[in-house]
Amino acid sequence: MRSTFHRGAIAALLALIPTLAGCAATGSDAASRALVQPGMTVLFQGDSITDAGRNREVGDANDPRGLGRGYASLAAAGLLMDAAPRDVFVHNRGVSGNKVFQLAERWDADCLELRPDVVSILIGVNDIWHTKNGNYDGTVAIYERDYDALLTRTRTALPDVKLVVCEPFVLRCGAIDDSWFPEFDEYRAAARRVAAAHGAVFVPFQQMFDDALAQAPAEHWARDGVHPSMAGAALMAKTWLATVQGR
Amino acid sequence: MRSTFHRGAIAALLALIPTLAGCAATGSDAASRALVQPGMTVLFQGDSITDAGRNREVGDANDPRGLGRGYASLAAAGLLMDAAPRDVFVHNRGVSGNKVFQLAERWDADCLELRPDVVSILIGVNDIWHTKNGNYDGTVAIYERDYDALLTRTRTALPDVKLVVCEPFVLRCGAIDDSWFPEFDEYRAAARRVAAAHGAVFVPFQQMFDDALAQAPAEHWARDGVHPSMAGAALMAKTWLATVQGR
After folding, report:
1. What is the pLDDT of residues A189-210, one digit of tens each?
2. Which residues of A fall within a CB distance of 8 Å from B81?
3. pTM of the model
């Protein structure tokens, strides 16, 4: 009888161990697995979601004025706090309205010349949006071809670069209606394929926002369905740090 | 023999439970103990460390342009993310260069009229700094008297208000030399006494930065000894959220 009790108690306690291990993994194990290591230069690239009101006259790394007011700035704060005693050197070169071909047009000055160790890219929503509103003539195939070429060019110029591809996302409110689907899902799938082809870390922002709908409606996270609220940006930074840094 | 093994195994597993409980406390227990609850209005007040380049033309709650680029903005992001599905309504009214009497001069417009549920104040470094450089004629006693009067006035006008008093801090580098001590420590002690007298939550920023010197030198956290770097601001936001929200 007592032996049976003991076995049951041990089984119950053992069942708790994975939870405990998951908790402990936020410590030094996670630090050693992190993609961004102290001393590295990190570049955030993309469109208005990355840009987020940054001061484009400020080019120095880690200057909050140059990092904007979005997920990139919040992720940078976490990277900088964690890197002590050293620094990381974070740049934001997101430009509002950009599509993937427009990243390519300014890639020498706004990526390669910065010699980043890590490049994180969030691009795609304008490739479909500007096509839908008649200001661009894009397709999923063009997006995937241009994105693939951009990453090939990056890896050729910077053979040791580590890449992060962030999933384009929308929330079903504001500017986003049913006419975006299923085409938008194909852009997301293309970004995932490009990430896999280049060994990039993939940050699943669409899945993250889909899951967040269990907590709050779409408008809470991005009033117009595209540009995150501060709550949405904070959630993105948390997910970026969890995915890229194991934080 | 087997029974002995069982007892030993159970004891070892039970020893892990407190760690597990500590991990689990970051969940709903912490949420219920948090000072800032969903739906509340939160005001950050202070000097340049709080101001942190906010756009003073932007008065709306939760507008990142109006929240600046410092600890208040980073703490706001955490508050907003955690409050889902509801919002909190965060204002920043820090003004660079302010001493405690200057908060009092603008307290009707920049605090009471906003009807905040929670007021967080970080003030004091200019009360000593501007006295040392000849631009003010302050003392610890004047600081404590003015600070106490400000909190009395706040509680009289807003009987249900919850107060957060942040400890003034300096790091020993840049503008900070030995001539600041022990007087600066007396300003810190005065802030702690005022917090206790008014039942305010006290955020121990000096202790936090003193502890952070084990990770990185003073300049890493605040190059001039007064104004935090992005890493310093991120550490402050983390400590603010841990102290005020149990996060």
Report:
1. 999 999 999 999 999 999 999 9
2. 231, 234-235, 238
3. 0.89
Give the nearest chain A residue to B218 (CA atoms).
Answer: A85
Residue A31 confidence (pLDDT): 76
Instruction: Count A/B contacts: CB-CB distance under 8 Å.
Output: 120
Question: How many C-beta atoms lie closer than 10 Å to residue B51's C-beta?
Answer: 22
What residue of B is the nearest CA neighbor of A83? B231
Nearest CA to B130 out of B99, B102, B174, B171 is that of: B99
The pLDDT tens digits along chain B (247 residues) read: 444 445 544 444 444 443 444 344 445 677 778 999 999 999 999 999 999 999 999 999 999 999 999 999 999 999 999 999 999 999 999 999 999 999 999 999 999 999 999 999 999 999 999 999 999 999 999 999 999 999 999 999 999 999 999 999 999 999 999 999 999 999 999 999 999 999 999 999 999 999 999 999 999 999 999 999 999 999 999 999 999 999 9
- CB interface of B with A, residues 94-153, below 8 Å: none
What is the largest distance, in Å, between two alpha-carbon atoms of chain B? 79
Compute φ and ψ for A15, nearest 5 degrees.
-65, -20
> Which of B81, B88, B213, B215 is the best substitution to test chain A (most A C-beta atoms within 10 A)?
B81
Rounded to whole angstroms, the Cα distance separating A11 from A13 reads 5
| H runs (alpha helix) in B84-132 | 100-105, 107-110, 125-132
Give tens-digit pLDDT for B147-197: 999 999 999 999 999 999 999 999 999 999 999 999 999 999 999 999 999
Q: Residue A10: closest CA among chain B residues belongs to which residue?
A: B10
Write the ipTM.
0.88
| B11 contacts chain A (CB < 8 A) | no
The beta-carbon neighbor of B220 closest among A16, A74, A84 is: A84
**Is there a contact between B119 and B161 (Cβ–Cβ < 8 Å)?**
yes
Are B53 and A65 within 8 A, CB to CB? yes
CB proximity A2 to B under 8 Å: yes
Q: How far is B103 from chain A (nearest CA, A)?
A: 26
Core vs surface per residue B220-229: b (16+ CB within 10 A) or e: bbbbebbbbb
In chain A, the domains with their CATH numbers are 2-245 (3.40.50.1110)
Enumerate the residues of chain A whose CB falls inside 8 A of the CB of residue B74: 74, 77
